[in-house]
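Notes from the 1:1 (GR / supervisor)

We went over the backlog. Supervisor wanted to see one worked example end to end before approving the batch request, so GR pasted a single chain during the call. The sequence is below; no edits were made to it. Supervisor asked that the structure be written out right there so they could see what the output format looks like.
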Amino acid sequence: MSLDVSTALLERAEAGEVSDAEFVDCVRQSLPYAWSIVSQVAADLTAGEAEFADHAVPPPSEVERGQLLRALASDAIRGGLERHFGVKLAFQNCHRVAAFRLAAVGGDRYQAFISACGQLLNQSPELRDC
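Structure output shown during the call:
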């Protein structure tokens, strides 16, 4: 499973009454490594003036890599994180996470990061199995 959902939160979800804050807290508790990486890039972005901030260090194990994949491959989880941090997230190579300012979405740097060329240029032999 992607998330560890409490019985109470599951009951509220069944009733259609889950807030973004409750959902994001469930993500934070369930996927701590992914949360730490997204928190870091969002904080780095906020602290600087660049259009984006990224984290490109491979996770320490497959457990952590799995957390990133689950967090960023899910539209609901990614969207919740983006709303919570006020950023647009981008993802490459099973571990490179970037946070873009919302005003930068659609700009040259964002388009270059999410492009097929950007993905291909970010390859290396040690990353091909991720």
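Supervisor's comment: Strands lie at 52-55, 88-92, 96-100.
Batch request approved.
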